[in-house]
Amino acid sequence: PDYVRLTVPLGSTWSMPLHWHHDHDSRRCVSVRCAGGPLHVFTAKRTGGSSDLLGSAGTQQRFEASQMIAWGRDGDGDGKADPALLIVDLEAPATLHRNVCSAVLDREVFPRLASTPPWLRGLFALLAWLPAAQERLLACLLWVQLRTMFYTHGFHLYCGRISISWWWMAQPFGGHVPQWAKNFEWRSQEIISVIVLASCYWVGTLLLGMKAEYCQYTPERKQESEASVKKLDF
After folding, report:
1. Best label site of 11, 20, 159, 212, fewest CB within 10 Å?
2. pTM given for the model
3. Cβ contacts of residue 20 below 8 Å, gap of 6+?
4. Residue 206 has what pLDDT?
């Protein structure tokens, strides 16, 4: 994996969404290290149990395979984000995170991309006098775009699960949840994630003109593209 430095600016409530990677997946997140600001890291095991790590500059957390992870700026306990700038060094493949961050920052550019289908450009033109509706449409498209990228890069986003452990937890004195119930919940979580991400991928690529990677956001892809064009010229 590469090392990617991510900065969460002042006033932003952005955080890395809860996700996991399969065992032995070379594209998984390996660790996160705080380079500045208040960091909150959440981890959970598929067999049950979770932990929270709060720290500042120098704090580092390594992740296990198939471990659910999420991180972001540490709050102040009242549900409000700490105003301090958060800077982290993430040990993970750079391609995904470069594309994700660029898609978030450049979401207003999507309607003007050459790959955007004419019908969608026309819809944006019709909504030019309705800023609120146009903003809502941009948010929906970004939602689909990010999941298209996640699906392609083995980034399994948490989208819910079928919970049955509540039955044992509701028993007097707290019943023991059997292993088969934990496995069922984890499997349902995997299936739901695949259905949601795969649906976004096919809708995004076939109907909305989206890509899982954009060469302008991926230097090595851009260089390969330029090299191929030069070869064609000769």
Report:
1. 11
2. 0.82
3. 46, 66, 67, 68, 69, 156, 158
4. 94
